[in-house]
């Protein structure tokens, strides 16, 4: 693929346009360890499927990827269990906050999708049922998918969240009561908190998610991660559900499948073209990176490069 867009130049244009704009977001402090991050960080990294790299700012600094990791746990569950998982978690947008309890009561413990907290917890329950050493095996899968052996959990972030994860305890208990959690709740939540604690740089994120830009095969390592059909489905769920009650807005303004996390990271995919990761820790009211969303909106507007 010959790339004719100078993304590097575009990153400079976008970020200098934003210099005068106030970042009105706030950092996630409900996980105490995340509150320690420098709110001014800004990293951008774009990797094309023919392995060209465009970087800006703090793109090689590690941060807590939080819910972005839920795409990788879903990928592993699909790889092991196939379509069976859809009996226990849906593929519809939730239209509510990532940690909402309300819908779950009405819908009898079946979460709307695998990216809201409840859905990701069910995926962790599935992984606990089918992996010998869930934490270790999940990490091995993520290292293989990314081709980066140094990727790791953050003990500090996971344990910090465990101490204050009251809502996640409420969600898992409610689902256990409805029969949609099959294992011990502490074991399931332990995997969930460690999953959310994974740390990566923007550059590493693009490497880890590249398989979704190229039909399930990581074009850099040539490793087949998942079938093309499943890669298509994961991208579809990202488009519809990757930003909670702001998924419509992200599709409307950015026009790419993507996934956010409360660490301020966002990954977005242009199937057949590139994967981009942005990190800016201050979040908007929906728990998505305020500046990250703006950077991606400006990128697809300037380049006219969205899936639509
Ligand atoms: N949206 C997110 O990134 C939320 C993940 C966070 N670990 C939580 O469970 O609240």
UniProtKB/TrEMBL annotation:
It comes from the Bacteria. It is an enzyme of class 3 (hydrolase). It catalyses: L-glutamine + H2O = L-glutamate + NH4(+). InterPro entries: Beta-lactam/transpept-like, Glutaminase. NCBIfam families: Gln_ase, PRK00971.1-1, PRK00971.1-2. Belongs to the glutaminase family. This is Glutaminase. It comes from Psychromonas arctica. The gene is glsA.
